[in-house]
Amino acid sequence: MKVLKIAALICAAAFSVSSVFASGLYEGTAGTLTNDADNYIDVNNWQKVKVQNLFSQTTIQTSNLDFGLAKMFGKNYMALSYSGNLWTADDSTNQLSFLFGTGNMGFKAGMQWNVDTGTTNTTTTTIVPSVQWGLNFNTGKLPAALDVFVLCAFTNENIDTTTDGKSGSIEKSGATDPQFGANLQLTLSETKSVSQFAKFGLYSIINNTNSSSYTTYDASGDVVDTTSYTTSGSTFGTVEQIFAQYKILVKLDDSFTYCGKFTVPFTFATYNSNSDANSTEIDFVLRNGIQGYIVPKKFALNGGLYTQIPSIILRKDNSSSGTFANTLYCGFTWNLSPAFTLEAANEFVHTNTGTGATSSTASPSISDFWNEQFTISAVAHF
Q1: In this structure, what DSSP letter does residue 372 have?
Q2: What is the chain's percent helix, strand, coil content, to nearest 5?
Q3: pLDDT at 250 over 70
Q4: What's the CA gap between 332 and 251, in Å, rounded?
Q5: Model's pTM, two decimal places?
């Protein structure tokens, strides 16, 4: 079992569990601007959702369906969200979340499950239960938001090279990776046209391998003891990440909105069995997004630019740096009526990596337009 690789993938996925964004606006502006389709299942932003009788949103992105409902029950708020694969056979991921909001707090419980059969003779299943709590409060006269979450990823891998239980081997292994994290957002300044924010986050994951077994079978289906064995589980390392983010939001009347984010994450990886592999990585991510209405209150064009500035990677015996990459996004928002909105987004330029003589560009193909990059969403207020 490739424990390090699987743990890293779980860690990367788990770090994003505290926020689920679904709207075409968010996708089309490189992850900067949001609307009700993003906020309805967020423990801090559910109060922003305009719920009359019932709110619903539906998003299709590549092979994924995202569907959600929200409703007020007196002064209490409830929302349900489902996200899953529609037609991907080899790697299927599903997620179900429930949010309860009351007063200035939000409580969310979720369950994510994944089945991956993309590797020959190998089936990997992952189950990730999670809980999250959010609190909105004021620091002086300015608003602030705090959220805390806990989750645990349970992964099991089964490699079966036998034929009906004969002439081959069965290897069973797994991992149990608990994680916790917290985010704090502070409002630095807030006026009618310009708002500024600072956000700080802390995430931690403990990577544990479960006990594993390797069993060999002969042509008769009997166990070959000399080549079969079991191993005990252990804690092989931890990953901690802290980040700081600056965000500015500019609104020029109701026709134009700009949002910029600059995020610097610090990631520390520690390995119990090999301290030489310990590393510190510093990333620099810049996001810029705009929305401009060309038909007032009806139709807007959205655009965004995601920039990955070369990272710094530090290890015991060496250091290195990452590459420079850009991704350009575009889309539209169409308010068909006060109660119904249609949105779409796409990566106009897939990636542009490197500089000077080492630069390379990968533009999207026709198949990429739908299979990898296209997002369409609908939001309804009943």
Answers
A1: I
A2: 10, 65, 25
A3: yes
A4: 18
A5: 0.87
The three-class DSSP label of residue 24 is helix
Using CA atoms, how far apart are residues 10 and 219, in angstroms rounded to an integer?
Answer: 37
Residue with tokens 């599903």, as numbered in its chain: 94
pLDDT tens sequence across 331-343 = 999 999 989 999 9
Of the candidates 145, 141, 94, the one whose C-alpha atom is nearest the C-alpha of residue 115 is: 94
Judge contact between 330 and 346, C-beta under 8 A.
yes
Cβ-contact 47, 91 below 8 angstroms: no
**Checking phi first, is residue 256 left (phi over 0); if not, alpha (psi -120 to 50) or beta?**
beta
CA-CA distance, 291 to 251, in Å (whole number)?
10
pLDDT in tens, 309-359: 989 998 877 777 777 888 899 999 999 998 999 999 887 655 555 554 445
Backbone angle region of 30, left / alpha / beta, with phi > 0 → left and psi within -120 to 50 → alpha: left
Through-space distance between the first and last CA atoms of the chain, rounded to whole angstroms: 49
Kindly report the backbone phi and psi dihedral angles of residue 318, in degrees, each rounded to the nearest multiple of 5, phi listed first.
-160, 170
- Which long-range contacts link 220-225 to residues 24+ away (Cβ below 8 Å)? 220/166, 221/164, 221/165, 221/166
